[in-house]
What does this fold into?
Amino acid sequence: MIEIQELSKRFGKTQALQSVDLRLQEGQSIAFIGPNGSGKTTLIKCILGLVHPDEGHIRVRDTLVSGSFGYRRHIGYMPQVGRYPDQMRVDQVLRLIRQIRRPASEVSLDEELIDAFGLERFRKKRMHTLSSGMRQKVGAALAFLFDPPILILDEPTAGLDPLSNELLKDKIRRQRERGKLILTTSHILSDLDDITSDVLFIQDGRIVFFKTIEALKKETEETRLSKAIAQIMKKEKGDG
Amino acid sequence: MGKILGYIIGDIVRNRIVLAYTLILLAFTLGLFLLEGRPEKAMLSLLNIVLIVVPLVSVVFSTIYYYNSGEFMELVLAQPVDRTSVLLTEFAGLALALVLALLIGVGAPLLWHEQSLLSFLLLLAGALITTSFVALAFLGAMLFRDKARGIGLALLLWFFFALIFDGLLLLALYSFSEYPLEKMMLVLTMLNPIDVGRMLIVTRMDAAALMGHSGEVFREFLGSAQGWAVTITVLLAWTALPLWSAVRIFRRKDL
It folds into this structure.
């Protein structure tokens, strides 16, 4: 569903992405893992067309990303904490995006998360008065609202309380079963354990490995994702 | 795009700075007409205030607004919308709100006192200078990621067009005072939107008689339909060109 070829991006002196090649299929739930500044968010922003790569191409459902914008109707995006317009009220954000994405007459919206998170109670609050967890709920509700085939979630569980965390993870799991492609970045590895099928490890703008969870666990003989990753990182360091 | 425009206008109109701007313009205009007995003199003072304050507020406020809308832009541009239309919508929102402030602050009291061609021209020039400084602000904001530098550049732009440019023009005039420069001056004046606006109005006033031979050339030029059309086109170009350049850069920009 997403095809990335030879993608490179440089910000001044730092090489944010270096010849990244990837093919992502429906039904996959991929965890982007890597240290801070490793290029995860840059890669996501390239897919969304927010950052223009220096070299290489991205195709989303066979549409070339550069120069087009219609392909974004297939994507639901949940940005990192804090990246929301401060002065807008919750209901304004929801209404605006709804009006941008589809004319009033069209059919079903997936409002499950709006109800589950009880966003109705905060609808008149401005975004900057909300706690980071509450903003995350707005972001998550928006990403799932239009039932898109591709979901991109940047640090989705950061700041969420345990109950909402479970609600969101359950939602992600069910969406994956419905054959969607889900991309998640997170530093909280324990959260990723039961919602991902594959792990993409990025460091210094390069893909270190891209493997299924089963393969990883088998290789390291660990049962928990966090332990398996830690072991691989240790090994990488030892080899280097 | 109508929805985004509606939201942006609503957001700016409720902004306290825009409200203060409207009230200050209103106070100046009312004050000038109440305190100054001769309308022509009041008009000249009003012209000078408008030519200083309008570009300053337009360029600085638009720059700050652009930088503060970063998150909003990111949210909107992650949706299936085109970058060009988002930037043009933000431009339209700012331009409409600031022109509205001008029409309420200066236009309402002015037209109440003086329904003349001159009043109309003053508002027209003020409106076109507003849109061109909003466009210049956008162009400037494309050059720096850093907000403080962007605001610095905005102030510099205002300083250049409001003060330095005329200084340089005078310098040129004195240095080459032996040569007939009137036509040349006419062309050079077109390089500054504030001066174009001033020219549009002053040549219709009796004060133009004090401007000597240059004033005569300017009057003659603006007296013809052709000159009039050229001047308005130049003022419009002062909005269109910076805006077009800003859009071109914005399309390739990393957010």
